[in-house]
């Protein structure tokens, strides 16, 4: 009987490329995004007046928390950690080291769980969307149009959007997991080969065992 993991296992992903290639592209893409975020955060820390991140609640017109230097440093540290994790996944997929892919896979699971909790919170507390819209600054585009929308339609639109994101993230998780299985399978030195007949299953010996068997003596003439 084929297990569900083996049934969904494949060595190809989007655009018909190999799972190793897809994981490398995904890791490089995440590294570029986090590198840009880290560059913006460091630039804002260097010149806070130019980037205007020191905004008070009165300037925002809301009760939103103020972004200070401590929060900026924490965000920069998280971006740096993400660059390291994505770099490990890229290196692991390129050099076929399965253990290096695990941190990035764990991050994907954690991110998927957070987005799932957001979707559940929207379903359980649908009024939180209206509360969030009220906290947005008055200069936010289309704020009045969004607040005048029916709450049920707004919740449906948000859940549809989150559902599409979750489906895409689940597909990326499957690609990285298949890459991990492929790399770990390539690193296995011993491969078990089975020969199955109608009523019996025979385990063939490995190459080392076959070589170690002494040759049979020729029959006497």
TrEMBL record:
Example of a GO cellular component annotation carried by this entry: multivesicular body membrane
TM segment ranges:
21-45, 74-94, 101-126, 146-168
Superkingdom per UniProt = Eukaryota
Q: What is its main location?
A: membrane
- Mind telling me which Pfam families this protein's record contains? Mtp (PF03821)
InterPro entries under this entry?
LAPTM4/5, LAPTM_transporter
Q: How does it sit in the membrane?
A: Multi-pass membrane protein
Sorted keywords for this record are: Cell membrane, Cell projection, Endosome, Lysosome, Membrane, Transmembrane, Transmembrane helix, Transport, Ubl conjugation
Quote the subcellular location field of this record: Cell membrane; Cell projection; Endomembrane system; Endosome, Multivesicular body lumen
Record's function text:
Required for optimal lysosomal function. Blocks EGF-stimulated EGFR intraluminal sorting and degradation. Conversely by binding with the phosphatidylinositol 4,5-bisphosphate, regulates its PIP5K1C interaction, inhibits HGS ubiquitination and relieves LAPTM4B inhibition of EGFR degradation. Recruits SLC3A2 and SLC7A5 (the Leu transporter) to the lysosome, promoting entry of leucine and other essential amino acid (EAA) into the lysosome, stimulating activation of proton-transporting vacuolar (V)-ATPase protein pump (V-ATPase) and hence mTORC1 activation.
Q: How does it assemble?
A: Homooligomer; upon reaching the lysosomes. Interacts with MCOLN1. Interacts with NEDD4; may play a role in the lysosomal sorting of LAPTM4B; enhances HGS association with NEDD4; mediates inhibition of EGFR degradation. Interacts with PIP5K1C; promotes SNX5 association with LAPTM4B; kinase activity of PIP5K1C is required; interaction is regulated by phosphatidylinositol 4,5-bisphosphate generated by PIP5K1C. Interacts with HGS; promotes HGS ubiquitination. Interacts with SNX5.
What the record says about family reads: Belongs to the LAPTM4/LAPTM5 transporter family.
Q: Provide the protein name.
A: Lysosomal-associated transmembrane protein 4B
């Amino acid at each position: 009987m084929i297990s569900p993991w083996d049934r969904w296992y494949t060595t190809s992903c989007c655009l018909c490329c190999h799972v190793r290639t897809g994981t490398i592209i995904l890791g490089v893409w995440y590294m570029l995004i986090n590198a840009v975020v880290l560059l913006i955060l460091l630039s804002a820390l260097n010149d806070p007046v130019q980037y205007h991140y020191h905004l008070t609640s009165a300037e925002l017109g809301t009760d939103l928390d103020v972004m200070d230097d401590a929060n900026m440093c924490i965000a920069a540290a998280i971006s740096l950690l993400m660059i390291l994790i994505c770099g490990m996944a890229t290196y692991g997929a390129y050099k076929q080291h399965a253990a290096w892919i695990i941190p990035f896979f764990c991050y994907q699971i954690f991110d998927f769980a957070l987005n799932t909790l957001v979707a559940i919170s929207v379903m359980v507390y649908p009024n939180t969307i209206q509360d969030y819209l009220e906290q947005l600054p008055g200069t936010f585009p289309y704020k009045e149009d969004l607040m005048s929308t029916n709450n049920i339609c707004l919740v449906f639109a948000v859940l549809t959007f989150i559902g599409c994101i979750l489906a895409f993230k689940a597909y990326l998780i499957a690609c990285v997991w298949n890459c991990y299985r492929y790399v770990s399978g390539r690193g296995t030195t011993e491969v078990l080969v089975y020969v199955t007949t109608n009523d019996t299953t025979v385990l063939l010996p490995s190459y080392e065992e076959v070589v170690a068997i002494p040759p049979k003596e020729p029959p006497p003439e």
